[in-house]
Amino acid sequence: MLIPLLAATMALLVAAIALPRVVTMSPLFWTHLVVAVGIMTLITAAMQHFVPVLTRSRSPGLWTGRLPGLMLAAGLLAIMVFAGWLDYDLITAAAGLGLVGASVMLAWMWRRGRKTLGRPHPGLDWYLAAMGCLALGLTAAALIPWLPQWHGPLRAFHIHINLYGFVGLTAIGTLQVLMPTVAGQADPGAATRLRRDLKWALAGSVLLALGEAGVPFAVWFGLAAWGWPLLNMALAWWRLHRVRLFALHGSEPVLLAALLGFMLALAGTQLDLGYPLTVFLPGFLFPLVSGAAGQLAPVWARPGVTTPWHAESRRSLGRYAGIRAILFLSSALLPVLGYKCSGMPGLTALFWFLILFVIWLWRD
Length: 364
Description:
Elements: H1 2-18, H2 27-55, H3 67-82, H4 91-115, H5 123-143, H6 151-183, H7 190-212, H8 218-245, H9 252-268, H10 280-301, H11 308-317, H12 321-336, H13 343-363
Helix pairs in contact: 1-2, 1-10, 1-13, 2-3, 2-4, 3-4, 4-5, 5-6, 5-7, 6-7, 6-8, 6-9, 6-10, 7-8, 8-9, 9-10, 9-12, 10-11, 10-12, 10-13, 12-13
């Protein structure tokens, strides 16, 4: 399931940048097409892959394994509302479906952590915190039609707790483990950072969302709290992997672009960029998804013992990734500097990778 979801999510990311110029739809439609239909479903499915690894347990059961489908249904219902095909009050039903899925995922991950022999990997706590943020965001969304006087604050909280809490915590928690795997070099401080820095990242996500919802000064405390774990991770990467971070080939430069893109997306919250995904989408999600796909897609396609085929697949998917990283980073930096059409470099890079991905799938 993960390979089709990955390909579909990348196609949706391309569509969210390319199609708004030719298809007239509400910005909320495009936002939810990417985040609710694509990213929420993909993250749920990916967590179901990683949690058994982090807890040294078996794969999810039949019913738990169908939760990504429930998340997909919630996302599809949301975009039908924002397309104008369904009554706006049904946004509560869409959010409620997602909230059920998030709650079941939280219970499943918590039980897996409790049953682990020994202490589970600290990455599990990041996934629990991320799914908790999603539950908070969906709760806020469910209340919007029934509390019109709070529409603005609830919408702002929903957007930011989902982007910087749900997606951000999942991504940064995964990148801490993914980069050493991609670089082939152990990071002995990763587990310590994951345990120590989660409280700062989670507090930063909640404070940022509360600040955007109207709580005075909370945004600045949230940005400062997020800055600490990001700085720690960036310094560790520089110390351990700096040669590979600027290579022409391989996924390491793209993962660095994702980290820098997330930093710029955080900074962009304080700029009048209009569309909330202006930096977050091409500057962070594009390199994050493509960089992770370059490393993980071969594992998902052929689970089990690593073979020369896996290494060759990663080399194929990572070819000229250093150039794509520059394009992704340009899409993160240009809107912060005030330039328009900032999504085009990132769109070019993602479409380039999508072609490589389709060719790799076809050959396999």
